[in-house]
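User: For a benchmark we're assembling, each entry needs the component sequences followed by a predicted structure for the full assembly. Here are entry 17's components. Please fill in the structure.
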Amino acid sequence: MEERKGFGTNFGFLMAAVGSAVGLGNIWGFPNKMGASGGFTFLVIYLVLAALCGFIVMLGELALGRKTGKGAVGAYKVLSKKFKWLGWLGILSAFLILGFYCALGGYCIKYMVLNVGNVFGAGFGNNGLASGDVFGNLLTNQLESVIYGLIFVLLTMIIVMGGIGGGIEKFCSIGMPCLFFMLVIIIIRACTLPDAVNGLKYMFVPGWAVENGVIDKAPNLLTVLSTAGGQMFFSLSLGMGAMVTYGSYLEKKQNLEKNALIIVICDTIIALMAGLAVMPARFALDPNGPIGGPKLLFITMQNVFNSMGTVGYIFGIIFYLLVVLAAISSSISLLEVIVAHFCDKAREKGKGDKRKVYSIIAAVGSGLLCVLVCLDGLGSNGIAPFDILGIEANGWSDCWLDFFDCISEGVLMPLGALLMCICIGWEIGPKVVDEECCLEGNSFKSKGLFNICVKVITPLIMVFILLGQVDGFFGLGLFQ
Ligand code: PFF
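Assistant: Structure for entry 17:
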């Protein structure tokens, strides 16, 4: 059988795993949710959940992957008869998330180009239009959106085709440090603007957002808990096999526990840093603009760059490049979840791994979903689920992006993480993780915490998060 090649170094693995975790969720999700959900209070709750739930699921997934040396589907199949289908939930989630992630990644590439146009006063810049109109035009220009979306799919595919060591590791080992460096540049610029302090107050001071009319009323504690939980596991790429897959490519001598901890800490630090880059700029230069989601990225931030003159466009190029890097390092992990499974199967049959063929097939599948999201233009073009079904627009039916997000982030991912805990805690037993952590002289310092969490605490929190996600996406009003 052909050898299954993995990460060359632990640094390469870490950059790839942190790259998967750091994505659009960190940039437009975390800062806004933190500000709207009680600032510092949200942060404390987020950190507790990250320790009791994020770290536990991360370690569990990495251990299952490395133990079996297989992608998500193969790993569960080997470990348990009852849970052998669980990996397929991950493959489905990966396709759905890729559908909207690539469309948004395409918009980011378009905005990089747009800012180049702005620097040179070229026709492909803003052309004097307001940012809201530029974004509106992009959404309704279906051909342009599709082309940029497919460019993003193509880039993702090319990296995954290169394999783990040659494609993903190489890209992330260079891309992630660059992302960090660019983020620092944007933070320095944003935090030295006049009135930038309001952005910091929005993010950190409890109650500031309500007192200053940014939001109507503070959410209740249950809502804050479920918002923090939902954000935490999407941001850490958990519950859908991405970390099982990356873990399967890690050498046995590497310390799993330490790696899991580093990934969780880095993702949280970058989410906070993204807030320091985005919120001060928003409050200083576009205080009435949108504050979260795609509009924060493509309207508010572009307004910020427009208001700085030519130098602003250079910051715009840097900013959108860093978002493209964050998005690609996440989308390659999503595509790898799908590709790894089929490569494993081909290898078992002695046919080589056929990585290139499967990368193309998986990219075509996710590219089709991406085309749908682009044609829909966030619900602008009359083909959103609510248009087709003839119902009133709400959370899940607003647009195809929300629909895919709602099934994956809202249901499949929290369900996947919950079932993984039950599988480790009650079906195969936490000893599997203990053995995997203690290989080659490593110790498992948090064994006691892990065992109690994976059996009882984490599943209970996951049930709560699952309810919170379903409630939020479908507007059931459970946590009012
Ligand atoms: N963690 C990514 C983000 O915060 O944007 C999203 C994500 C990437 C989820 C990869 C799942 C995944 F497998």
